[in-house]
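Standup, Tuesday
Yesterday: got the pipeline producing C-alpha coordinates again.
Today: sanity-check two examples.
Blockers: none.

Example 1:
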Amino acid sequence: MKLFLDTDMLLDVLLDRREFFFDSARILDWAQSHPGQCAVSWHGLANIHYLSKNGAEEFIRDLLQFCVVPAAGTHEMSRALDMGLADLEDALQVSAALLFGARILVTRNLGDYRKAPIKAMHPRDLKL
Protein backbone atom coordinates (compact mmCIF):
# COMPACT_ATOMS: atom_id res chain seq x y z
CA MET A 1 0.00 0.00 0.00
CA LYS A 2 1.54 3.31 -1.08
CA LEU A 3 1.07 6.12 1.44
CA PHE A 4 1.90 9.81 1.38
CA LEU A 5 2.86 11.25 4.77
CA ASP A 6 1.67 14.80 5.42
CA THR A 7 4.03 17.17 7.19
CA ASP A 8 1.81 17.48 10.27
CA MET A 9 2.16 13.82 11.21
CA LEU A 10 5.93 13.95 10.74
CA LEU A 11 6.09 16.98 13.03
CA ASP A 12 4.03 15.09 15.61
CA VAL A 13 6.88 12.62 15.93
CA LEU A 14 9.77 15.04 15.59
CA LEU A 15 8.35 17.56 18.08
CA ASP A 16 6.99 14.85 20.39
CA ARG A 17 3.42 16.17 20.30
CA ARG A 18 2.06 13.84 22.99
CA GLU A 19 -1.58 13.94 21.88
CA PHE A 20 -0.69 12.71 18.39
CA PHE A 21 2.70 11.05 18.81
CA PHE A 22 1.63 7.40 19.14
CA ASP A 23 -0.57 7.29 16.04
CA SER A 24 1.96 9.08 13.86
CA ALA A 25 4.91 7.05 15.19
CA ARG A 26 3.00 3.85 14.39
CA ILE A 27 2.74 4.94 10.74
CA LEU A 28 6.45 5.80 10.62
CA ASP A 29 7.31 2.41 12.14
CA TRP A 30 5.30 0.74 9.37
CA ALA A 31 7.01 2.91 6.75
CA GLN A 32 10.42 1.95 8.08
CA SER A 33 9.59 -1.74 7.79
CA HIS A 34 8.21 -1.21 4.24
CA PRO A 35 10.88 0.89 2.48
CA GLY A 36 9.72 2.72 -0.62
CA GLN A 37 6.01 2.42 0.21
CA CYS A 38 5.74 5.92 1.70
CA ALA A 39 6.55 9.33 0.33
CA VAL A 40 7.09 12.80 1.72
CA SER A 41 7.27 16.06 -0.18
CA TRP A 42 10.39 18.06 -0.88
CA HIS A 43 8.78 21.24 0.44
CA GLY A 44 7.43 19.35 3.47
CA LEU A 45 10.96 18.44 4.48
CA ALA A 46 11.96 22.09 4.17
CA ASN A 47 9.02 23.04 6.40
CA ILE A 48 10.03 20.42 8.97
CA HIS A 49 13.55 21.80 9.03
CA TYR A 50 12.27 25.35 9.40
CA LEU A 51 9.76 24.56 12.18
CA SER A 52 12.05 22.39 14.27
CA LYS A 53 14.24 23.89 16.93
CA ASN A 54 17.33 21.89 16.02
CA GLY A 55 17.09 21.89 12.24
CA ALA A 56 15.94 18.26 12.03
CA GLU A 57 18.76 17.10 9.75
CA GLU A 58 19.07 13.74 11.52
CA PHE A 59 15.29 13.17 11.43
CA ILE A 60 15.21 13.98 7.71
CA ARG A 61 18.21 11.74 6.99
CA ASP A 62 16.44 8.89 8.80
CA LEU A 63 13.25 9.45 6.75
CA LEU A 64 15.24 9.30 3.53
CA GLN A 65 16.32 5.76 4.40
CA PHE A 66 12.78 4.47 3.83
CA CYS A 67 10.63 7.27 2.34
CA VAL A 68 10.57 8.45 -1.26
CA VAL A 69 10.72 12.15 -2.19
CA PRO A 70 8.91 12.49 -5.54
CA ALA A 71 10.75 14.77 -7.96
CA ALA A 72 8.14 17.45 -8.58
CA GLY A 73 8.48 20.20 -11.13
CA THR A 74 6.53 22.68 -13.22
CA HIS A 75 3.70 20.29 -14.05
CA GLU A 76 3.10 19.39 -10.40
CA MET A 77 3.18 23.04 -9.36
CA SER A 78 0.63 23.92 -12.04
CA ARG A 79 -1.56 21.02 -10.97
CA ALA A 80 -1.43 22.25 -7.36
CA LEU A 81 -2.37 25.79 -8.41
CA ASP A 82 -5.34 24.46 -10.39
CA MET A 83 -6.51 22.02 -7.72
CA GLY A 84 -8.91 24.41 -6.02
CA LEU A 85 -7.81 23.71 -2.45
CA ALA A 86 -7.90 26.64 -0.05
CA ASP A 87 -4.24 26.22 0.98
CA LEU A 88 -1.51 25.99 -1.67
CA GLU A 89 0.75 24.02 0.67
CA ASP A 90 -1.94 21.34 0.98
CA ALA A 91 -2.37 21.31 -2.80
CA LEU A 92 1.40 20.82 -3.16
CA GLN A 93 1.18 17.84 -0.80
CA VAL A 94 -1.62 16.34 -2.92
CA SER A 95 0.30 16.95 -6.13
CA ALA A 96 3.35 15.16 -4.70
CA ALA A 97 1.14 12.31 -3.46
CA LEU A 98 -0.38 11.87 -6.92
CA LEU A 99 3.06 11.94 -8.54
CA PHE A 100 4.15 9.14 -6.19
CA GLY A 101 1.01 7.13 -6.91
CA ALA A 102 -0.11 7.09 -3.29
CA ARG A 103 -3.47 5.52 -2.49
CA ILE A 104 -3.85 7.42 0.79
CA LEU A 105 -2.62 10.76 2.13
CA VAL A 106 -2.04 10.34 5.87
CA THR A 107 -2.86 13.54 7.77
CA ARG A 108 -4.56 14.85 10.89
CA ASN A 109 -6.02 17.75 8.90
CA LEU A 110 -8.75 15.86 7.06
CA GLY A 111 -10.83 18.97 6.44
CA ASP A 112 -8.02 20.52 4.43
CA TYR A 113 -8.21 17.66 1.94
CA ARG A 114 -11.98 17.25 1.47
CA LYS A 115 -11.78 18.36 -2.17
CA ALA A 116 -8.56 16.49 -2.92
CA PRO A 117 -8.55 13.84 -5.66
CA ILE A 118 -6.94 11.37 -3.23
CA LYS A 119 -8.29 9.77 -0.08
CA ALA A 120 -7.09 11.37 3.16
CA MET A 121 -7.01 9.41 6.40
CA HIS A 122 -6.13 10.25 9.99
CA PRO A 123 -3.15 8.23 11.30
CA ARG A 124 -5.31 6.70 14.06
CA ASP A 125 -7.81 5.37 11.51
CA LEU A 126 -5.32 3.78 9.15
CA LYS A 127 -5.19 0.00 9.59
CA LEU A 128 -1.86 -1.41 8.49
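Example 2:
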Amino acid sequence: MSIMKKIRHKAETAEGAIKKSVGKSLGNESMEAEGRADQSKGNAKQVGDKLKQVGQRIKHTFTQ
Protein backbone atom coordinates (compact mmCIF):
# COMPACT_ATOMS: atom_id res chain seq x y z
CA MET A 1 0.00 0.00 0.00
CA SER A 2 1.31 3.37 -0.88
CA ILE A 3 2.01 6.01 1.70
CA MET A 4 -0.32 8.37 -0.16
CA LYS A 5 -3.25 6.00 0.38
CA LYS A 6 -2.47 5.82 4.09
CA ILE A 7 -2.34 9.60 4.31
CA ARG A 8 -5.57 9.97 2.34
CA HIS A 9 -7.45 7.54 4.58
CA LYS A 10 -6.14 9.11 7.78
CA ALA A 11 -7.06 12.55 6.43
CA GLU A 12 -10.57 11.33 5.64
CA THR A 13 -10.92 10.04 9.20
CA ALA A 14 -9.61 13.30 10.65
CA GLU A 15 -11.86 15.37 8.40
CA GLY A 16 -14.85 13.36 9.56
CA ALA A 17 -13.91 13.87 13.21
CA ILE A 18 -13.59 17.61 12.68
CA LYS A 19 -16.87 17.81 10.80
CA LYS A 20 -18.56 15.81 13.57
CA SER A 21 -17.19 18.14 16.26
CA VAL A 22 -18.16 21.30 14.38
CA GLY A 23 -21.64 19.94 13.74
CA LYS A 24 -22.04 19.07 17.40
CA SER A 25 -20.87 22.47 18.61
CA LEU A 26 -23.15 24.28 16.14
CA GLY A 27 -26.10 22.05 16.94
CA ASN A 28 -26.24 20.91 13.31
CA GLU A 29 -27.30 17.27 13.53
CA SER A 30 -26.95 16.56 9.82
CA MET A 31 -23.37 17.86 9.75
CA GLU A 32 -22.56 15.82 12.84
CA ALA A 33 -24.02 12.68 11.27
CA GLU A 34 -22.17 13.33 8.02
CA GLY A 35 -18.92 13.74 9.95
CA ARG A 36 -19.55 10.52 11.83
CA ALA A 37 -20.15 8.73 8.51
CA ASP A 38 -16.98 10.17 6.96
CA GLN A 39 -14.98 9.18 10.01
CA SER A 40 -16.34 5.63 9.90
CA LYS A 41 -15.63 5.39 6.18
CA GLY A 42 -12.02 6.46 6.69
CA ASN A 43 -11.60 3.98 9.54
CA ALA A 44 -13.07 1.17 7.43
CA LYS A 45 -10.64 1.93 4.61
CA GLN A 46 -7.72 1.83 7.05
CA VAL A 47 -8.86 -1.54 8.39
CA GLY A 48 -9.28 -2.86 4.84
CA ASP A 49 -5.77 -1.79 3.95
CA LYS A 50 -4.37 -3.46 7.07
CA LEU A 51 -6.19 -6.70 6.22
CA LYS A 52 -4.81 -6.53 2.71
CA GLN A 53 -1.28 -6.16 4.11
CA VAL A 54 -1.78 -9.15 6.42
CA GLY A 55 -3.05 -11.21 3.50
CA GLN A 56 0.02 -10.31 1.46
CA ARG A 57 2.32 -11.27 4.35
CA ILE A 58 0.58 -14.62 4.74
CA LYS A 59 0.81 -15.24 1.01
CA HIS A 60 4.48 -14.34 1.05
CA THR A 61 5.12 -16.66 4.02
CA PHE A 62 3.55 -19.69 2.34
CA THR A 63 5.03 -19.12 -1.12
CA GLN A 64 8.61 -19.26 0.09
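Quick observation on example 2: The radius of gyration is 16 Å. The mean pLDDT is 93.
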